[in-house]
């Protein structure tokens, strides 16, 4: 239970970082004319290099370690990088076309896709409580979308909402991919560094979609803050929270950004076009989404479904050799790669 509490603290840190990042990017796009979602996204992706760059350049042994990690994680990290870049491109582009509150609200609907993908991949177990929480979030998201179409200050709000929804799908996919193929096999820092290497290799390709323009000194400072706080720190915290609380709860935790962004939008006068029945639908949507997160957070069953033995362990399983048990969330015990070993009395006692 203590690990789960740490996971919620990490998710809370993620919320603060995401709200600050979205507001900073809107300030750059609307106040300083820096509407370059590709440059913003790639600068964020390159921040992952901070997790391994120093070690990679320090000595030969670290260099060999990083090269070995790239060989081991190249395909998974490359897929993760493509999903991450695409998701954040869509989200960044949505901020310029709809309200910040609506963009973050719709992006947080990734919980529905996370539940389906994580259960299908065996990362999480299905529960009625999770289903109910996701249903509340989806209904709330729908109400918020309908309310946002009444805001005339965003003529492209439907396109912005669509981009935010596309980002929600990809957020869920890359989080489940990490949980299934990476979590606990290597350190998160090493994995994110390999993702940063992929981003560096993809950088020249992105100039085809958006010409490279040097930002001003103020824009450069904002980009650096956004990359470090809004990506390097927040992504590490989010992945940690997901490993402790499960992908569904982690994606639903993003709904906590809604009251914060809504408060900022209200203070800055962005919600003047929302009133009457539209305002009622919008507020109801926010309440339902937040209620969904509260319901999801009370579900302590974040255990993974048993995974089949790895091909390279088949011989060991047949000879009675098994991995030592490792602690997992809840009161259960997880055996990596040795769930079907019947020749070990100690393991059978836990079955």
Short structural summary:
With 351 residues, this protein is mainly α. The chain has 15 helices and two strands. It has a two-stranded antiparallel sheet.
Question: What does this entry look like structurally?
Answer:
This protein has 15 helices and 2 strands. With 351 residues, the chain is an all-alpha fold. β1 and β2 form a beta hairpin. α5 runs parallel beside α8, α7 packs antiparallel against α13 and α11 runs antiparallel to α13. It is globular.
Write the layout of secondary structure elements.
Layout: H1 2-31, H2 37-46, H3 53-58, H4 60-95, H5 100-107, H6 110-120, H7 128-148, H8 157-181, H9 188-206, H10 217-245, H11 247-253, H12 257-267, H13 276-297, H14 314-318, E1 326-327, E2 333-334, H15 345-350
Antiparallel strand pairs: 1-2
Radius of gyration from CA coordinates: 21 Å
What strand line-up does the widest sheet have? Answer: 1-2
- Beta-strand content bin: under 5%
Q: Roughly what percent helix?
A: over 70%
Name the features:
two-stranded antiparallel ribbon; 15 helices; 351 residues; mainly alpha
